[in-house]
Amino acid sequence: MQCLVIRHLAFEDLGNFAPGLKQAGFSVDYVQAGVDALSPAAFAAADLLIVLGGPIGVNDSEEYPFISEEIELIRARLASGKPVLGICLGAQMMAAALGARVYPGTQKEIGWGGVTLTDAGRASCLAALEYNDAVLHWHGDTFDLPDGAELLASTTATPHQAFRYGRHALALQFHVEADADCIDAWLIGHACELSLAGIRPSAIRDDARRFGAQARSNAESILRTWLAETGLCA
Predict the structure, then answer these.
(1) Could you point out which of 113, 141, 190, 212 has its C-alpha 20 to 30 Å from the C-alpha of 205?
(2) Residues 70, 88, 125, 168: which is the catalytic one?
(3) How confident is the model at residue 140 (pLDDT cuts 50, 70, 90)?
(4) CA gap 163, 27 in Å, rounded
(5) Angle (CA) 182 184 188, round 5°
């Protein structure tokens, strides 16, 4: 099976999801947004599409024209009923593709923490997140819940943290895929944003050491359960 991964930053990769995808029998092809061509045929043919995060926004298409093209391809993929997983920017693109508004949140949410699951979330692939703080938040934008989507998780700062759309589409505003062993790549790459937000990199690094093992376990559980829900693996 083929997994097509749309990446917007080199260091924001599959991380904790990579071993599980390999174990499930997927070959992985990365496409670098803004550099590589976004092929409609590739979007349609892949058994699984994963759209990763990045520091640009859904509403930045005037400066980054590929954003509009990417959203249109995600819209077609969602309509096809084939599995899609969106993380952070990827989740926002999914929301936009489904007709929901994407806009700046009331505050930036950056650092390790937890989410509050809805009843649907507790019964979903996100159940592993119920009693721990091992997800990485790193976003400034948020989105309205798309029509027909089911809310799975929230935080005080961001009421819409995760949703599913049918059985085939999962959108996560937060990062369960972030590999704590590689957190310094995030801290270096986002140094300016952290400085402007008044956040010390050492605090995120220290929490990565505390929560890294749990985050990896969470990611493995979420991916395994979701792939089974979509019918991609047993």
Answers:
(1) 141
(2) 88
(3) very high
(4) 26
(5) 135
Which among 12, 70, 109, 177 is annotated as catalytic? 177
Kindly report the average pLDDT of the chain as a whole number.
Answer: 96
Architecture in CATH of 2-230:
3-Layer(aba) Sandwich (3.40)
Alpha helices in the chain (DSSP H): 17-23, 40-45, 66-80, 89-97, 119-122, 183-189, 191-197, 201-230
Q: Give yes or no: 175 in active site.
A: yes
For this structure, is 233 an active site residue?
no
Strands 135-143, 162-165: parallel, antiparallel or unpaired by DSSP?
unpaired
Phi, psi of 202 (to 5 degrees): -60, -30
- Whether this prediction's pTM lies above 0.85 is answered by yes
Say if CB 94 and CB 165 are below 8 A apart: yes
Ramachandran assignment for 210, one of left (phi > 0), alpha (psi -120 to 50 degrees), beta (any other): alpha
